[in-house]
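User: Here's a chain of 149 residues. Predict its fold as tokens.
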Amino acid sequence: MTSKADEAQRLADLARLRRVKDRIDREYAQPLDVEALARGAHMSSGHLSREFKRAYGESPYGYLMTRRIERAMSLLRRGDLSVTDVCFEVGCQSLGTFSTRFTELVGMPPSVYKERAGDSTLGIPSCVAKQVTRPIRNREAPAGDQHVA
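Assistant: Prediction complete.
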């Protein structure tokens, strides 16, 4: 059985992890890395990574990249930016890494997504479009699942 001190520490750690997650949600386009996130939470990077994954099911870096891809999908659906512009707009520094991660989560390269996404959410409220086009977390997109919405 855990003591009150252990329970208080667990709750404090969960609050810090929530602040890290909120920071990623707010600052996803900024240059963030696990070291910077850990410093902000007054934790070691290893401890942050382990505890974040235990609490949220994926690493802080994985969550950050998923957040960036979600935003990239929205920008690509708008259609007014190139894939390269979108890559840098969401905070990625490498077009190759961005394209690889996008393809893993969405099931198609960003250029193909941009071509197909234009009309797929036409007439759908943006809050609904965001839900139905959300990338897959914690696993790669199924092979052969090449639809946009």
